[in-house]
Amino acid sequence: MPDSRRLLLVSLPVVAIAIACASETVYPGDLVIGMFDFHAQANWDRTDCKLDGGDFSRLVDGGFEFAGTFSRDSVDGGGWFTIDGFSRKATFEAPAQRYVTVHRAAAQIPSCGENCKGAEIEETMSVVVLSDSQDRAIGSKCANLPDGGLPDGAVPGPTVNGYDAERACGELKVTFLPGKENCKCVTSCTAVYGVEGKRRFNGGN
Question: Secretion signal: which residues (predicted)?
Fold first, then answer.
């Protein structure tokens, strides 16, 4: 089973590792959309996980940062989101310019007890990727993204200067699934974050 280093919510130095490995990573597929530096901000109105016990130390008012790279296969349509050198499967919905990646992994949750077995965290990240002209149309702020639609501008795609993708807007939903053996935790909960990513133009990404 994939370990918790692949999760964004767990309090590990994911961002530092991802940055260090970026230049060495070979991304799956033949189209590298780009590496994005993300900021995740908790949406308290849609979150029912609690801070008690320190289980979710990234569920804080200031949010947290992470970086990851989207890539695709232009032939079979496969997609991936790579973080910490690990490529998670992703789907791509062309009309909506949307990437969705779902990943589940084992998680050591303090309040569950040290002998708990089977506790997991499932992350679902869904973002719309915008081209440079679309990004300028919203003033480079995801908050200005039209409800239920896309801003005016060119559709993201390959150019002579690389892939035209500038910003990613969406959400990260994290669901805690309690363990099934020797566990003190018995109730699931979900944390929801708004995420905004800015394309990083270095290291060939």
Answer: 1-22
